[in-house]
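Lab notebook: predicted structure, single chain.

Context: the supervisor wants predicted structures on file for every construct in the current expression panel, including those that have not yet been purified. This is the next one on the list. No modifications to the sequence; it matches the entry in the shared construct table.
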Amino acid sequence: MKKATFFFIVILFSCNSGLNEYKDPREKEKLMVFDAVMKEVSRILKCPSTAKFPDKEERIYSVFHKVGFKYSVFSWVDSQNSYGAMIRTRFMIDAEIKGNYVSCSDLIFLEN
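Prediction complete. Output recorded below exactly as produced.
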């Protein structure tokens, strides 16, 4: 009886372990794109050392696959302005993966 109970518990846990996990098939590429976008956006900010971008999950959902290796990113960054106040700025940008390199273009800061 102990062996049957143990076997049932092992099967139960192994069947339930991945039910609620959704993994985006392009997760790796999307994170690679967002890393390049963070560098591009930070380059333009008044105080890039204060830049705070979304967490990993939100980063993945803010990158949209268009076609081939082309992506669009709609996201935000919190950073200090020239007066020291933290300001949230929304932006959109296009990106393209070229081998191990990501090319960014058409950065637009959106009005709040």
